[in-house]
Amino acid sequence: MNSDYNISLEMEVKFKDKNKAKIIYNSIIPEVDFSPNDRSIVHLNLNDEKIVLRVESADFVSLRAVINSYLRWFNLSSKIIEITSI
User: Fold this and answer.
1) What domains lie within the chain, and their CATH numbers?
2) What is the pLDDT of residues 3-51, one digit of tens each?
3) How far apart (Å, rounded) are the C-alpha atoms in residues 21 and 41?
4) Are strands 50-57 and 7-14 parallel, antiparallel or unpaired?
5) Cys-Cys link to 15, which of 5, 20, 30, 47 (CB 3.0-4.6 A)?
C-alpha cells in the first residue's frame, strides 16, 4: 500500500455465474484506467464468478465515493444483462 493512501477496503461481489461476472468485469474495467483520481487507487480482479474490488484511499470521503460508484456500476451492469437476457 502506498503511504499516501492510508485507508483500504477489499470486497468481493459474487454473481450467479462466471459468464455474468466476466461480462460485468469487462464493462467496468475501463473505469479503473480512465477515471483519474489522486485521492484513491482502485484494483479490480476477476476470480471465477467473483469480482474483487480493492480500494486504497487517502480519506474516507474519497473511499466512500469510489465504492458507491463501483457498486452502482455493478448494479447497472447486472440490470442491463437481465434486460437483454445475455
Assistant:
1) 7-84 (3.30.310.50)
2) 677 999 999 999 989 999 999 999 999 998 887 778 899 999 999 999 9
3) 22
4) antiparallel
5) 20
